[in-house]
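Researcher: Let's walk through a ligand-bound prediction step by step. First, I give you the protein sequence. Second, the SMILES string for adenosine-5'-diphosphate. Third, you return the three-dimensional complex as structure tokens. Ready?
Model: Ready.
Researcher: Here are steps one and two:
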Amino acid sequence: MSKGNQVLEEITSKEYEHGWTVNLETDEAPKGLNEDIVRFISAKKNEPEWLLEWRLKSFRQWQKMTEPKWPNVTYPVINYQDIIYYSAPKQKVKPNSLDEVDPELIKTFEKLGISLTEQKRLTGVAVDAVIDSVSVATTFKEKLSELGIIFCSFSEAVKEHPELVKKYLGSVVPMSDNYFAALNSAVFSDGSFCYIPKGVRCPMELSTYFRINAANTGQFERTLIVADEGSYVSYLEGCTAPMRDENQLHAAVVELYAMKGAEIKYSTVQNWYPGDKEGKGGIYNFVTKRGLCAGDHSKISWTQVETGSAITWKYPSCILKGDYSVGEFYSVAVTNNYQQADTGTKMIHIGKNTRSRIVSKGISAGKSQNSYRGQVHVMKRATNARNHSQCDSLLMGDQCGAHTFPYIDVENNSARIEHEATTSKIGEDQIFYCLQRGIDEESAVALIVNGYAKEVLNQLPMEFAVEAQKLLALTLEGSVG
Amino acid sequence: MLNIKNLQAKIGEKQILNGIDLKVNAGEVHAIMGPNGSGKSTLASVLSGREEYEVTGGEVDFLGKDLLELSPEDRAREGIFMAFQYPVEIPGVSTINFMKTALNQIREYRGQQALDAVSFLQLMKEKMKLVAIDQSLLNRSLNEGFSGGEKKRNEIFQMAMLEPKLAILDETDSGLDIDALRIVANGVNKLRNKNNATIVVTHYQRLLDYIVPDYVHVLYKGKIVKSGTKELALELEAKGYDWIKSEVTVA
Ligand SMILES: Nc1ncnc2c1ncn2[C@@H]1O[C@H](COP(=O)(O)OP(=O)(O)O)[C@@H](O)[C@H]1O
Ligand SMILES: [Mg+2]
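Model: Step three, the predicted complex:
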């Protein structure tokens, strides 16, 4: 296997592509967390009193809670007093248009392949860019507002649309939901807000890019998407971070609210810095994502391609409250080197004739650990609920691990639940078959992995599917040998 | 085209090939026969570059190049094709996508431009006819849920697409009923020309009624113990392999 090893060497020495930092002057809070820091953040953002109160309440709640220990991941104790909870790139004045945005910032996003200025000319995608704690630019605003669509940073939404924020903030993920959600509720800095009015089909992909830049900084963004009756929106989230020796904390909350007949499609391509080959550094990604199908015939669909982070703890879930509502979860989670992922979903069936579908594809390589954890809960009044779960694991090499933890709770006899699970290995035979046709080893792995993940990748918007395919191949290159 | 001299190979501690000599010229079809376990598949694997097999001696010249020095993918790009005895499944990857990737990597190696979608489709249509294969099969995941016959037919379709100089068919007849056998053999025959060569590996003579060889070699215990023309195959059919075995033991 000398050739295999050689490829493995070459590739694992490949650097994380987005691992650069930018010299941006920042405006920071002092390290540590207490009520004053919460007040500081709120004051920095000129927030109304009700929001400060909400944050303080969350903070007090958080203090009473303890970090969850049930995920199948191990990491050193996090010192919450050693983190900076607010860091904003210094802007002399708040930009009114893109032309006023700090050119360094624009450059930062250009390096990521997201050109905020060019973006205007590309059709189809509106972008909200968040760096460290602050949203720096949202594109395509005017065009969207013609349709009554609101797409802006969270802080702006607090100012411009307080009634909407007040009504829906915490309505899907209550502040007391879990340890990290409570933390986020206390210190969240910015994020994106989106509202689609009744009957409107959002004509373009809405997209947010998150980037952590400053050292020792936690990123706590908050996304809230509200789809009014009969509306439709497709939303994409992407993220990167620089390479650093120390771990950085990312604890986001995403809330989706779908009213009667509305549909929200939420896609994530997660590419936070995973740490180096020895497992040093990397992002701790503790995220709470949940969607509420509040109205009848509503639908929420999560698609995620998880390739980054040192530790991923994430369960995008659907609460199927409306009758005939539909929840979907499509996931590809890749772990390599020393990465650990514990991810999956929860489908809570409350309404009648609700349906859910779970397709999870785990890929483990190197010395990584990859766990799927999924819950399907059918409540008493959810007659004729249906769920289909497919959980596949693909192993590359023999030093990694794949684990599946399905939990099924059925309180109504009419439910139909199907669960399938498979574990397979990329075979030498498959690789050789490709080699014999003139395909090199790297392309062979890419081909096989993309084939394996196809059902999930097919769910992504076209332009991102290609990116995701490349990302998968890049994360795994040379892992067979 | 292919010149094998005293080739020896082992897997693990087990010596399997014990000095093979074989010369194949352009335009020729050679059949390699022999009882199960005699080393036929091993020979095919060594020629195509499977890493598990360790070459312990001998040399192989392919079109003036030292074949044993080349990586498996470069051997393929130089024009060696193997139709597998047991083609593997690759879920989620269609034959079409697979062939597009293969063909373009081979073309790149040869300094040719990648085929555009239209030309690729044209080429595909043409080759599909040759082996009477349906496009719906080519859209499906490679070999997944294919019948034995479909798998073999798909192998020959790939061979048609890649136009190898030397094709090695490993037990392409196994698991085929007579109609499928005829279609597959027909495809192979149509692909024959004076510039390419074929090695047909089989332990039944049945296939050789359809793909008529110029030479027949009998492999036994890792050595070619007898060579002849197509009549040798008929003789083997009539007398069975025991005849060869006893001849070898006597000598
Ligand atoms: N991977 C392997 N490990 C150990 N022995 C093997 C392996 N592959 C083949 N052999 C042995 O090598 C010999 C030749 O096998 P093979 O080349 O498949 O023969 P044939 O194709 O002529 O039936 C057999 O005795 C077989 O058991
Ligand atoms: Mg064999």
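Researcher: And what stands out?
Model: Residues B 40-41, 85, 171 surround magnesium ion (ligand 2) (CB under 6 Å). Residues 1-15, 118-123 of chain A have pLDDT under 50 and may be disordered.
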